[in-house]
Amino acid sequence: MGDNGTILLSDNHGSSFQQAQWVPVSSTLTGVSFADVKHGWAVGHWGVILATTDGGEQWQIQRLALTEDRPLFAVHFFDIKQGLAVGLWSLVLTTQDGGKTWTDQKTSPVDKTLSDLNLLSLFPDTKGGVYATSERGRLLHSKDAGRSWDYFNTGYEGSLWCGTQLSDGTLLVGGQRGTLLRSEDNGQRWVRIPLGKKSSITSITVNGPEVIAVGLDGLQVKSLDGGRTFQNVAAQNRESLTAALATEDGKWLLFSRHGIVHQVE
């Protein structure tokens, strides 16, 4: 998904993609989450929330706020009823009915200077909760589907664009200027993983024992030791990458603003 209401889908494990049959908006779309093979949600600029019940072919508007362009950057659904979306200036919206209604939640940090952080991505924890990456090196955690949040300071001052939690509980977050941080104690202490690169990290994805991080300027690094160390993956070009998706045959699909770049073994 991307600019002008673009939503691409594939029914052959990424060998080919086609545009969704019906997308009722032309705004930039920034995040997507599926609760199962049929039920999915997408979010984007103008605070739009779209929903599909047929695997992504047809989409309907659940929310659109044209009076202010306060974009949503990420969405996560725990099941077909319960989900949340986050965005500009600590905007947090939650639903308990599959998106028929959305409720604005206040983050209420102890440090009030953090009350308007942009929330940039969402990723699930291993116990049914969810994390949100944000500006000023903060990682937020909710155990109640977005109704309340705890704040963790990674010690980094820039924006964290993405993250993931491994099966053993290890946290990995990435962001600007090649910043990749790792925590083994639920976010209390963090160590920086040296990459030798300054390109910003846009996505961290796990598939079995492999962890891959991609980013701007064609950044691709892979770990086979739980994110302790990463090795560079030779890139065919310097196309900036936005996401990586594991396929069933053990390969990775890499995405950019211009679509799929290539597959990585």
Q: How many runs of DSSP E, i.e. beta strands?
A: 25
Indicate the overall shape.
Answer: globular
Which structural class matches the secondary elements?
mainly beta
Termini Cα gap = 24 Å
The main sheet comes to:
4 strands, antiparallel
Tell me the number of helical segments per DSSP (H or I, 4 or more residues long): 0
- What ranges have pLDDT less than 50 throughout 5 or more consecutive residues? none
Tell me, rounded to a whole number, the average pLDDT: 93
- Cross-sheet strand order for the largest sheet: 3-4-5-6
**Percentage of residues in helical conformation:** under 10%
Radius of gyration: 18 Å
SSE run: EEEEEEEEEEEEEEEEEEEEEEEEE
What does this structure look like?
The protein contains no helices and 25 strands. It has about 260 residues and is mainly β. It has a four-stranded antiparallel β-sheet with strand order 3-4-5-6, with no helix packed on it. Strands 7-8-9-10 form a four-stranded antiparallel β-sheet, with no helix packed on it. A four-stranded antiparallel β-sheet has the order 11-12-13-14, with no helix packed on it.
